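Schema walkthrough. Field components (list of strings):
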Amino acid sequence: MNEFLLVFRRDFKTKEVQPSPEELQAHLSRWREWFRSLESQDKLARPLQPWESNGRVLKHDKSVTDGPYAEIKESIGGFIVIKAADYEEAVEIAKGAPILELGGTVEVRMAVK
Amino acid sequence: MQKAFLFVSMEERALLPHLFRTEYQKLVSVLCYLFGIEHIAVAEDIVSDTFLAATELWSVKGVPDNPTAWLYTVAKNKTKNWLKRNSFFQQKLMVDLQHNTPQGEEIEIDLSEQNITDSQLAMIFTVCHPSIPTESQIALALNLLCGFGAQEIADAYLTNKEVIYKRINRAKEKLKEADIKIQQPTLAEINDRLETVLKTLYLLFSEGYYSTSNNAVLRKDLCIEAMRLNYLLVEHPHTNKPVVNALLALMCFHSSRFDARLNDTGGVILYEDQDETRWNRELIERGEYYLNEAAATPTITKYHLEAAIAYWHTHKADSGEKWESILDLYNHLLILEYSPIAALNRAFALAKVKGKQQAIPEAEKLQLTGNYFYHALLGNLYTDIDDHKALQYYETALQLANSPADKELMTKNIDQLNHKQNN
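Field assembly_structure (string):
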């Protein structure tokens, strides 16, 4: 069994593509359901950990700005570590990620042993 | 890991329906009221950010015991942080602020029930400003007062998101251009603008009730929102006027049939075919209460007349008194404000009182040849009198029908007539 990092990214910046409050609430429920199903299948390799949505961005000149939506369009909405046999299974699991409904992406990376 | 698993799984409580939408409209109103309408975008950003934070945290940690209090705390903190980062804005705001914040003190974000209500009332009177074109006004009302997204509004209007965006933005531009202040309306302003406000609420409700959209849930939500805003006006001593009660009575009577008039597939069940045990008695009783309140002064508005017509429709059984009253009310309504739809409805009432023979020439006089309802009505009136003509009218109605439900209805009528002729 291998461990995989799933990174969820989405455009949080462009006003026109942001979900409405109602859509966001439905979206939240689907994350909860998805996380629950991963837990019940024992697919999570680490406990779920939410991260603050703001944070800081450190630039090459060491200047600090409020992040993370500084200059790039897509930002990280969160990440989880899962258990899967190979990339095929990990990608199959990632297909259930609700971020996809909002036009986001999931990056899948295997942990190097 | 095992602990986290337990924590999330134990959190079985479902989120309150529409929690985000409900709190969105309240928070946006309070922040707009605080910042001034020219800074809608800032208010919207802060509130959206709050919901994003909630989504990220709650999806993992579960919903807190008091989600509303959580949202308010986070929104307050986000506003304070935002003000700190934008000291220029804060200084300007301190000067502009309608609510006197003592010098040097932090701006207080008041999320008390009273301030939420005041803010929402001020927002209603701002959004329903006569300088904004009607279409944009309704889109803006749905967006700002009701917390609907552009996609949801587009679904109700059977148009696309981009069109709705344009309408909302045009309305926001207008508000800025005209430098419309968001504030508690004075008694004089209430008198001046109440008519526009009620018209917007009426259209909002109609959009939900008569929309051609197939999304029944969404349509019901529109009606509920229009009623909620109307209720806000009834609850406020300054706006609790007979005409406001009349409109709310009208909405109560109509919405009492909401569930009974749609079948499982979203098709229309005609009034005559509805199961009246599915009519919402509670809404009818509330409508009667508001109609009584509306009669507090002798002034009769079109909402009074429409509410009274709707009241008679809550009595299913045909009686002479019922249809004579409805006919009389339509006669008054047409004098007060002529509309083709009211004229067609009057012709139908006339048929009920005096018979189809008498109603046909009255209806045909209207000559609304491009109107679906005109042809549907004449199809109905000619049935059993001249089935051939009835068929012709129904066929034109079928061509003019917009919604799948109306098309289905006309096809059914045509089939019945054909069947009858063949036997």
